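ok so i was messing around last nite and threw this chain in just to see what happens. nothing serious, just curious
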Amino acid sequence: MKVAILVKEFPPNVIGGTETQTKRMARELARADHNVTVYTKAYPDTPDDSTLPYDVVRVPNWRISPFISTLTFVFAATLLLIRDADDYALLQCMMIYPNGFVGQVVNRVRGLPYFAWIRGGDYYFMKDTPGKRWSIDRVLRDTLVLVQTERIARDVRTEFSETTLEVLGNGVDIPEGTADGDKLVFVGRLKEQKGVHVLLHALEGHDEELLVVGDGPERERLEALANRLNVNAEFVGEVDPDDVADYLREGKAFVLPSIRGEGLPNAVLEAMAIGLPVVVTDTGGVADAVIDSETGFVVDPDDVDALEQSISRLTNYPKMRIRMGDAAREWVIKNHSWQNIVGNLETVYRCVAE
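result:
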């Protein structure tokens, strides 16, 4: 099937969960003999995309400010997809805002079937802004919308009753072998809602080594906090998504202490796929990926004591930790292998295209 995928940002210029998932999804769809074209922002320093197994259309935008860049991207992407609509069977919009709005306009003008995929922050951080809420509501009323977990589906239905939702999670590469390290690992963007400051407070007074993989606006403040609390934390900065597994192999457990706004983070699934038990917070769709006390522990957001206790249980009881890690890997293989995800996505394609 000839599929267009619209995503605002794309590697290597922006490396986030949605961007990395879209890149790997396009790769897997191409392997399954789909003809895929990704529409995404143009950057002046973007490497050549011609070696990829799918096409990439770099959409022009004015990089005067983030707002102007997004506004001009939306306008230009809409025009390009209106022009190219006859080339595709459907349009897949990664993030309901703003890409779902583009899909709706293109559908109205050219009749190209489309669906949107809520990723997490595009819903939780946007739904309370009047203009963005209006756009989200229009898309939810208009077409099929995918969400990553049942928890996110319930959250959406609580606020928007007229919706057609289906649950389809992220795919993950299953590495050979499992982790055998002795560190706690966090992977993610260093911003306030990821809750790394909560994790640092939970580790105060402990000898555990923490590996922090990722970069962001909070890095300097978090490094200072780690020093002040005397936490043994190594901040390695941003790494290529394909290299994340190398850092996960150094771990004995994975921690994601997010405060709010998560969808289904790639990092959690990647950690579980490599055999790490996980400690996560009950926010967004994260808890749906963890069977509490079987593949890891789920604690309330911003609860330092609960986070500390769960981490201590994993570090103090190695047999339990190994058992949970093995169970986590088995669960991911069963539920989030690319073979399963692509097969389910192909079912969505057939329904939308008809």
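not much to say yet. The mean pLDDT is 96.
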